[in-house]
Specification:
There is one protein chain. This protein has 316 residues and is mainly α. The protein has one domain. Helices cover 48% and strands 4% of the residues. Strand 3, helix 3 and strand 4 form a beta-alpha-beta unit. Helix 2 packs antiparallel against helix 3. The chain is globular. The N terminus is likely disordered.
Length: 316
């Protein structure tokens, strides 16, 4: 978990798949704007009145706010995966917008030793990059800027809180294959529960359909990471132990009580638990403040963790 990596300044290729994705994103965006979804006062329809943390920060949210909340999370994932696979993050023209534009601390190219894991990581990086571009295209001038993101001390603090390392030690997911997968495990299940939790408050069917599609992709990613960790954990049980500690931290951190909408990658008898679900085999959902509790590594009312200055937009 220790050590440093040299940076490689290369970008993911502009693949045909990505070009096709952007064409579709533009078409969907045009349809949304043309239909009044993202323009004018029609977006002011309240989707939810909610209270964040102990400060009683009340916010009436609409579809644009939910899109921007999702964009904040996609910025985080895209920066993590792009830097892990290419050494560099999002381009300058992909991060501007309303609110305060922040910088990214940490994140270097992982020296993958397993070609298959490297391919998985690259595919996920492309997906997360495309999610950012899609949401920014759909939001247009209403898109929030990338907030300040910490990919350095946040991982160490999360590892300490989870009991994976002790105070004074450091953890980075950019050193090797194993640590990369553990770092990725922190994010992916949160993304699935975030999209599921936001779904009931989306008023327009066009975006609800798009959100369902993104949720499905995040679920695929989560299953990839969980499957790899469980499989590799058969020869290195430490991976399973650490992954389950991360799950327990998320469960405790989100503030929902009970199971915390989270499960480790094994059942109590040690068998595989690749798909975390409730008793009806339905994926868990988290509220906005429960998601913030996790990514802030503390309380939704106090920015920190992966977003030291908070997220941009009214849901913060």
């Amino acid at each position: 978990m220790l050590g440093s990596l040299r940076r490689h300044f290369s970008q993911l290729p502009q693949t045909e798949a990505r070009r096709n994705f952007l064409k579709k994103a533009s078409a969907i965006s045009a349809a949304l704007v043309g239909g009044g979804f993202l323009s004018g006062s029609s977006t002011a329809k309240a989707a939810e009145t909610t209270t964040f943390g102990t400060k009683g920060h009340k916010v009436v949210v609409n579809d644009v706010d939910i899109l921007n909340f999702a964009l904040n999370l996609e910025y985080l994932e895209a920066e993590f995966y792009l830097r892990a696979t290419t050494g560099v993050g999002l381009a300058d023209d992909e991060v501007s917008g309303t609110g305060t534009l922040g910088q990214v601390t940490g994140g270097t190219q992982v020296p993958f030793s397993d070609a298959v894991i490297s391919q998985y990581a690259t595919e996920i990086a492309t997906d997360e990059h495309n999610h950012v571009l899609f949401l920014r295209d759909a939001l247009g001038k209403k898109a929030v800027a990338r907030p300040t993101i910490d990919l350095e001390t946040s991982f160490t603090n999360a590892a300490i809180a989870a009991g994976v390392i002790s105070s004074g030690q450091t953890f980075t997911p950019f050193d090797n294959d194993d640590d990369f997968l553990l770092g990725a495990f922190i994010f992916e299940d949160v993304g699935v529960t975030a999209y599921h939790g936001a779904a009931p408050f989306i008023s327009k069917s066009a975006y609800l359909s798009a959100a369902a599609g993104i949720l499905a992709v995040e679920a695929y990613h989560a299953s990839e990471i969980r499957t790899l960790l469980f499989g590799m954990g058969q020869t290195d049980p430490t991976l399973i132990t650490i992954a389950n500690k991360i799950s327990a931290l998320r469960a405790a951190a989100d503030g929902s009580g009970g199971d915390g909408h989270d499960q480790g990658i094994t059942n109590s008898d040690g068998t595989a638990n690749i798909v975390p679900t409730d008793s009806n085999s339905i994926a868990f959902a988290r509220t906005f403040d429960e998601v913030l509790n996790i990514v802030y590594l503390g309380s939704a009312s106090t920015p920190g963790g992966f977003f030291p200055n908070g997220t941009n937009g009214p849901i913060h």
